[in-house]
Amino acid sequence: MKKLSTQPKNGLHGQLAVPGDKSISHRVLILGAVSHGTTTVHHFLTAADCLSTLTALRALGVPIEQAGSTVQVTGRGWHGLTAAKQSLDLGNAGTGTRLLAGLLAGQSFDSTLIGDASLSQRPMQRVATPLAALGAQIDLSAGHLPMRIHGQNLHATHVQMTVASAQVKSALILAALQADGPSTIMETLPTRDHTERLVRAFGGDVQTAGDQRTVTVQPRPQLHGQTLTIPGDMSSAAFFMTAAAIVPHSQVTLTDVGLNPTRTGLLQILQRMGGQVTVTPQVNPGEPLGTVTVTASQLRPITLTASDIPAVIDELPLVALLAATANGVSRITGAEELRYKETDRIATIVAELRKLGVNITALSDGFVIDGRSPWHVVDSQLASHGDHRIGMMLAIAALRVSTPLQLTDAGAVDISYPTFFDDLAQLLPAKAVLA
Ligand SMILES: O=C(O)C1=C[C@@H](OP(=O)(O)O)[C@@H](O)[C@H](O)C1
Ligand SMILES: C=C(OP(=O)(O)O)C(=O)O
């Protein structure tokens, strides 16, 4: 049980560089593994999810050295991976699981992917079905893990995606890179494009065209190991941006944070809500990067629909929190995907914010929040439900409350942000920091 910090009288202040991007960290390991030569990664995210992917790749015969946040991958090429002796345990990592499904579908050996209780409840048919269009042979257990992948020669195809998911798209790209001709993948809505950018950086040819984003993948490129520095994770920085926006008298600056436009939904939402946000981009090859400063202000309500969701999917718990402080009714729809994350995030957001007296109602695909209702603590025992993003959102919510609150299963933050509580403490006055 962790004691959460209560509202700091003078707000949060300071400057922070958050750890490396989770999505990019997974992808760099995988692309480094199938490249020729060495890939050196700086500012790698050493959180449980990315370490699950790292461990899985080692079990597939890829030498990987890790010293703090610097990782060195010795590339084995597309044909140099070897069958793992045991099932690959991806722990809590949806991204690692789905991306590896795409990679392993085209290998010359069989693999089995397993995960923890949460990952074992998450839908995997969404990746198995479109991969089958390339000739992949994947067996699931009623649509879930364990996933048995029978490595095959894959065939070029055209795939129309049915779910807005960068994980599914990336699995398809990794499979299409091993196919016998060019493939095209059509998205329902644009999703994060880190895989596309990285494949190009490693020497491959993946092109994107059109509003509905058709991705064309040229097969069997020789990829070459790279040296790169991963930007700070927007999804981690988002906790402190939200804290700065909703805790009176705050001003917080996040440096070296990733500004890929497929990830910056929260910045636009904050601006639309009347938040005070200053963005200073820096010149950086590959992935956009910059500094963001957020200052506290009274927020307005917002309406979000399906097309707004992919660029803010992991920050929607924070959007709920922002809306809970706004001077009107916010409505978020088109976000059914939240039900398929580490927890059913619509259910866990609603259950936990209600403990603070927030006027929030669940919809099948989102929620309605009346920020005009005053908060009052109904239950001081908040629960992460084992979901890292819910736990961190609640720690930020606690900064709007003067009653001491506790958080169960706070260790869930290790999934994406092991130093979250230390970094938060840096922005708080010393006496506000609790054990
Ligand atoms: O591709 C990725 O790195 C991710 C894509 C998103 O999932 P979906 O593809 O399921 O939307 C996101 O929620 C996840 O945290 C990371
Ligand atoms: C949904 C998430 O991750 P994953 O799907 O990789 O488990 C997340 O980090 O919020």
Describe the structure.
With 435 residues, the chain is of the alpha/beta class. The chain has two domains: 2-20 and 231-430, Enolpyruvate transferase domain (UDP-n-acetylglucosamine1-carboxyvinyl-transferase, Chain), CATH 3.65.10.10; 22-214, UDP-n-acetylglucosamine1-carboxyvinyl-transferase, Chain, CATH 3.65.10.10. Helices cover 27% and strands 24% of the residues. The chain contains twelve helices and 23 strands. The protein has helices at residues 22-33, 48-59, 94-105, 125-132, 166-176, 194-201, 234-246, 265-272, 316-323, 345-354, 388-397, 420-426, and strands at 2-4, 13-16, 38-42, 64-67, 70-74, 88-89, 110-114, 137-141, 144-150, 158-160, 183-186, 206-209, 214-217, 227-229, 251-258, 276-282, 289-295, 303-304, 329-332, 359-363, 366-370, 381-383, 405-408. The strands form six sheets. The protein has a four-stranded mixed β-sheet with strand order 2-15-17-16. It has a four-stranded mixed β-sheet with strand order 4-5-3-14, covered by helices on one side. α3 (94-105) links the parallel β6 (88-89) and β7. α7 (234-246) packs parallel to α9 (316-323). The protein binds shikimate-3-phosphate and phosphoenolpyruvate. Phosphoenolpyruvate (PEP) is lined by residues 49, 92-95, 314, 341-342, 389, 416. Catalyzes the transfer of the enolpyruvyl moiety of phosphoenolpyruvate (PEP) to the 5-hydroxyl of shikimate-3-phosphate (S3P) to produce enolpyruvyl shikimate-3-phosphate and inorganic phosphate. Monomer. Belongs to the EPSP synthase family. Keywords: Amino-acid biosynthesis, Aromatic amino acid biosynthesis, Cytoplasm, Transferase. It comes from Lactiplantibacillus fabifermentans DSM 21115.
